[in-house]
Amino acid sequence: MQELVAIFKALSDETRLRIIRLLHQGELCVCDLVAALDMVQPKVSFHLKILREAGLIRDRKEGRWTHYRLDDSDIFVRFLLLSSIERTSVGIVEEDKKRLDGFQKAKTLLHPGGIGDGWRGLEGGVTTEAVSEEKRGNEA
User: Fold this and answer.
1) Which of 32, 55, 85, 127 has its CA 20 to 30 A from that of 78?
2) What's the rounded Cα separation, in Å, for the pair 85 and 37?
3) Closest CA to 36 of 119, 108, 100, 114
4) Residue 104 in 3-state DSSP?
5) For range 67-76, the mean pLDDT
């Protein structure tokens, strides 16, 4: 019974539904979710913890980075996740997706081989504007 309560509590928050919708597209790093949701990292991590404890997402460590994905190994959870994704507001998620796409392009342009130990994510001031400025400097 407590497992069901945890699942439904986790699904009762708009931010967590947005995270689920983003993770439906594939595995994401915390820094990707921070950029997409336009929230600070501790707040995003709080929501991820609730989703993980409810058994809705899984995480994996890669060096100092944590990546998250949906945990659809249980058929009941898979049904709930798909139902939640279908009912999530497309307008809000489109804005999240635009921010995520911009951030991922910035990561790729600044670090074509992937993010390494030198990557500082948003704390380092990486924005699409910063990437555009760096590209202009390289082209000159």
Assistant:
1) 32
2) 16
3) 100
4) helix
5) 89
Name the packing angle between helices 41-53 and 2-10 (round to 10°).
Answer: 150
SS3 40: coil
pLDDT, position 109: 80
pLDDT of residue 76: 85
Asked whether 58 and 68 are in contact (CB, 8 A), the reply is yes
Question: Could you tell me which of 108, 33, 18 has the C-alpha nearest to residue 65?
Answer: 33
- Number of helices (H) and strands (E) in the chain: give both, helices first: 7, 3
Indicate the Cα dihedral angle 17, 94, 130, 118, nearest 10°.
40
Q: Are strands 28-29 and 65-70 parallel, antiparallel or unpaired?
A: antiparallel
Distance CA 126, CA 41 (A): 15
Q: 62 vs 28, 105, 116, CA distance in Å?
A: 12, 20, 10
Of 37-46, 54-63, 76-85, 127-136, least confident by mean pLDDT is 127-136
pLDDT digits (tens, 9 = 90+) for 75-95: 888 888 888 887 776 777 888
